[in-house]
Amino acid sequence: MDTQINLADKAMGKAQRKLVPFIVLMYIFAFLDRSNIGFAKEAFQLSTGISEAAFALGAGIFFIGYAVFEVPSNILMHKFGARLWLSRIMITWGLVSAGFALVTNEFQFLVLRVLLGIAEAGFMPAIVYYFTLWFMEERRSSIMGLFWMGPPLAFIFGSPISGLLLDMHGFLGHEGWQWMFAIEGLLAAVSGVFAFRYLIDEPKKAKWLTDEEKIALKEALDKENSKKSFEKVGALSVLFNPKVLYLALICFIIQVCNYGLNFYLPTHVAGLLGAKVGTMVGLVSAIPWIFALVATIYLPRLSDKTGMRGSLAAVIIALSGIGYFVSSTSFPILGIAALSIVAIGNLACQPIFWTLPSRILTGIGAASGIAFINSMGNLGGFVAPNLRVWAETVFQSSNAGLYAMGISGFIAAILLFLTIPMKMGNNLKEKN
Description:
Helix content is 77%, strand content 0%. It is mainly alpha-helical. The relative contact order is 0.15. Mean pLDDT is 80; it is low at 229-234 and 422-432.
């Protein structure tokens, strides 16, 4: 028995070293291409004449296409395999993202934002499902923590790079924002080609695992799954499951809180520093994500160690709400510190949250259920920028948008706390 456990641990260790770094790189490109519009905002609007309302609509409308095609995309992934489907996702979204370099008006901008959402649909839930095929639950939060290093790394390295590309204004007759979209988008497309050659659909196809390791890992995963009271749902019936709907609501509120920062961080930092968005703002904008990176490594491990899921995620996202309120200050150092707390709260709670769906769903139900939760959650990315603009317009205050985002963090925390007594199956009982 101990030998089988050791072989399974060894197999998961190999999978972590072989697969996770490349998957993190994929997520870096995904998040960079999704949110780099925030860096291009001022120069992009000035060049194309896109209004503030149209920009907010475009920033959020990405998630409409994403939400509509999320479940079908993940069902197709389950049919064709992760390697082919994730490669397809990366190539198409990279090419669409590069196409933003050619935008000249609001209509083109909105169409491409919708197409970008359609192209990327299924990526994140496909990864969540993919990890269930390789890692036992006791390691899954830590693995998700490594995966969620992608967003902070995208901002840590992507923020200065995006700033430098914006400073290429006039090079070879093109504007800086055009260089930014073209280069960052094409990098994602090239990575998609490598993904097809590098990723492996399931352990039994991994040449770098011994036959004994493959058998031990399969037996360990099968044994773990046999002990869980999974919801008996199919690809479509899962969409009406009350527990799945509740998790989708939580994910939605979390993403409202999350994207209230992602799309506006560069301009917020620029306001605190009294500077325009460029290299300096890009470097300072990376600071909150450095702290978020450390948090996404440490806090999910704490979750695995203690067994705390909903309660720990609730505390973390509540910190984000506090950070939003404090970030309304006019003092640069305090403002950057508050934004760092927001980044920590937004990012570190998510790998812990994403352990919840896989504890009640399996098989095709997991593929479609996780996709549904993520698609509904990502509608928060549509709501967030428009909610900020609405709040600022109605209350005639730039701080009103920050307060609205902060309140969303508090609401998410309450809903997460309620998952503790909620009857979500014996396998969802927490140890805290």
